[in-house]
Amino acid sequence: MTTEFGIVYAGHIITSHFGSVVSKVCDCLLRRGPLSSREISRLAESDINHNKVKDILSLLIQHNCVQAFSVEPPDGSESKATVQYIALFNSILHRERYSKFSKVVKEELGPECVDVLDGLLSNGRLTLEQMIDRDRDRDSKGSEVIKDSLEKLVAARFVERVPSPEPVLGNKEEGPAKKRGGKASKIFKEPETLEERVLEAATPVDAIRFPFIFEQDSSSTLADEDSNISEGKRKQPEVDSSGPSNEVIWRPNFEELIRRLRHKACVEIVKERRDEGCANVLKAMLEVGRSQEKKAKPDKSVPVSMGSIYEELIKTEAGREMTQERVEACLEQLSATSSYLPAFVIESDDSYIVDFKSIISVAQKDEMESVVMRRYGKEAFRMFRYLSQEDRFVETDKIADAALTEKKDTPQILLKMWKDGYLHMQKLAVTGVYMPFLLWKVNKLIVSRQMLDEMYHASLNLSLRLTHEKGSEKELLLLPMEKLEGALKERRNKYRAKSVLLASTKFKLDDAIMLFHDF
Amino acid sequence: MSKRKRPEPKSSSSGINEDEKNILGLIRSKQGKGATTSEMRSATSIQQSLITKAITSLKKSKLIKEVPNMNNKGIKHFLAVEFEPCKELTGGDWYIDGALDVSKIEGLKEICVKILERCERAKKVVTLDVVYKYFDKDGGDGDQLSREQIREILKNLVLDNVVMEVKSNGLSGFSATRIGEICYKLTGKKGCGGGGGEARDGAFALVPCGVCPHIGICTPDGLISPMTCVYFQKWLDF
Ligand code: SF4
């Protein structure tokens, strides 16, 4: 879900990381969708000639912000497929979350792996050789350590082989004429957006994406295996082997990194709304089911048995303190519903399923409601909650009655929320009644979109303000801290406090953005 | 509810004309709900101008009164003087003299929260009955509350996110209740979203932009911008 401010924010990220010329090309792609390099040089400003556009595209591909692809020409057509480029909005936004990704890896695999991941995050894509070179220029841990770390990262799926540089999309799938419904479509759900289709076509099968590389050193053996393994996949991906040394090229796997953040967020949500015990049980369930998650963000986990939950739990110190009886009590609590909390876990036969969607929806709801509360007040908060609960159009006076708010004030409050896009309104003209009835509804999808757009906007604002603060204290920041005294020292401290507040707020706001966009 | 104070006044309607008689009859038949002019028109097929005239004269002779409709502002209802306006017109139990009795509602909400706190301390499950009995016992101020009113208060607390509804499953904690009966518990989120809550405040609501009335017109280089805005200025005032 990209929104207007999402695009502006993505453009801002690119500008601050790569400069305004690169940002112009990226903006062109974000706003207009896939384009060929010729089209980009025509549409972007005149000072960016075709060659420059190509260089910029290579840079953006290197940093995983753009993916090339082409569409198979129609049957019998002589024309050659032109290469098009698509901006990867999500990957651009991930650039602001690198510290979160590093933290995940640090907790799970330790500091050596973090160094390798950080190298990939800041360079976009690297071969093992390049990683070793990079290490040599720094605090040199040695090639064995680097190789070992990379192996661990690939095994944990935090790092993957780069996708096919230019997958070809089947032409037939283009048309919207596909019949919906039917058995087949229920089983094979079509990817929805072009971006998803391109990414799917570019991604190699798992055995190539996360190979056990280190058994055989020669990349040529790998290349042979590629074609065998990828047979049967819709589009055969060509793994990029165009690097100078013909070595395998690696990049961070955002899908897995986001999955871990999603799981962590779910555990946190449960911890806050239930308790530590429930959170531990949920964590164990996620751990058991993780390797079987087929999609990037499934609505539900696979069923896990009580036995496997317990087995996983006792691997941790906190888990070992729990008796089986206590685990059962936690599962009962997790499956309970009330007007306050939905069920987080679904019991089916003798197994349990984590309902990701329901856990995440609780946090989304809290985000929405707290904005409504602070922006429009307590009465509006009640009305909003009432309408969310009803999930249908309700007439003004009925809302006032249900929320026990003054009838005179109710329309104004509702109108205010409607103007800001937080409510849906319908007029109902009734014969004989002078004024049309107004009906109101909370459309969760529209509110989420509206909030997301505003959150991108706020993130952009925080970022701009941070840059502004830094710019206005440029000279002061050049002076060494220990030399500062009196008023200057105070000013420096103030600057520090401001930038810490801005940065930490932005960090937390990004968690909320992920809640609505990535989880 | 509407109450008939005087049954059928004697023909004080002497001296009124035929149209007025018809209209008065209609209004009386509608009791506490009264009739609107458009209803009079369609029921009696008397011309609008004559209806207006008749109403003025009936009002003057103190046979009818005008009551605004709380639910539909701008629409006037005419009631025979002997009737009290019904709930639909006044807005319901919580309205006095056309205004919502907010202090009464808030007071009752506070009492309900106290009852819930007391019961939770005593590990007692709270149903509507339990709260009703408390009020029955304590509410000696002559202000009898109906079960429906108490239910409305509890529902309101649910909307405030202070109280939650839980359906009894008949097990452990709910043994004193029927399965499926609605029970009430405190969410632990006091003061509806502010302070001491169990659930966190949203991250977005804590950014000035999250509650900013100008977010729609704020742009990086506009008149209202993050570089110059007063909200950031205040927030970053260390
Ligand atoms: S930067 Fe200032 S004016 Fe702009 S949305 Fe945020 S708080 Fe409002």
UniProtKB/TrEMBL annotation, chain A:
Q: Please provide, in alphabetical order, the Gene Ontology terms of the cellular component aspect for this entry.
A: RNA polymerase III complex
Which residues does the UniProt record annotate as the domain RNA polymerase III Rpc82 C -terminal? 149-361
Q: Where is this region: Disordered?
A: 165-186, 219-246
Give the location in the cell.
Answer: Nucleus
Q: Which residue positions does the secretion signal occupy?
A: none
Query: Where do the RNA polymerase III subunit RPC82-related helix-turn-helix domain residues begin and end?
Result: 11-70
The protein's UniProt keywords, in alphabetical order, are: DNA-directed RNA polymerase, Nucleus, Transcription
One Pfam family hit: WHD_POLR3C
Domain DNA-directed RNA polymerase III subunit RPC3 winged-helix per the UniProt entry, residue ranges: 369-436
User: From the Swiss-Prot or TrEMBL record, what is one GO molecular function term?
Assistant: single-stranded DNA binding
Source organism's superkingdom? Answer: Eukaryota
Described purpose of this protein according to its UniProt entry: DNA-dependent RNA polymerase catalyzes the transcription of DNA into RNA using the four ribonucleoside triphosphates as substrates. Specific core component of RNA polymerase III which synthesizes small RNAs, such as 5S rRNA and tRNAs.
UniProt-listed PANTHER family: DNA-DIRECTED RNA POLYMERASE III SUBUNIT RPC3 (PTHR12949:SF0), RNA POLYMERASE III DNA DIRECTED -RELATED (PTHR12949)
Q: How does it assemble?
A: Component of the RNA polymerase III (Pol III) complex consisting of 17 subunits.
Similarity remark: Belongs to the eukaryotic RPC3/POLR3C RNA polymerase subunit family.
Protein's name according to its UniProt entry? DNA-directed RNA polymerase III subunit RPC3
Q: Which organism is it from?
A: Eruca vesicaria subsp. sativa (Garden rocket)
TrEMBL record, chain B:
Major place of residence = nucleus
Q: Which GO terms describe its cellular component?
A: DNA-directed RNA polymerase complex; nucleus
- What UniProt keywords are attached to this protein's entry? DNA-directed RNA polymerase, Nucleus, Transcription
Write out the annotated subcellular location. Nucleus
| A UniProt-annotated Pfam family | RNA_pol_Rpc34
Quote the InterPro entries the UniProt record gives.
Answer: RNA_pol_Rpc34 (IPR007832), RNA_pol_Rpc34-like (IPR016049), WH-like_DNA-bd_sf (IPR036388), WH_DNA-bd_sf (IPR036390)
List the transmembrane segments: none
Residue ranges for the region (Disordered) are 1-22
Q: Which family does it belong to?
A: Belongs to the eukaryotic RPC34/RPC39 RNA polymerase subunit family.
The molecule here is called RNA polymerase III subunit C6
Q: What's the source species' lineage?
A: Eukaryota, Viridiplantae, Streptophyta, Embryophyta, Tracheophyta
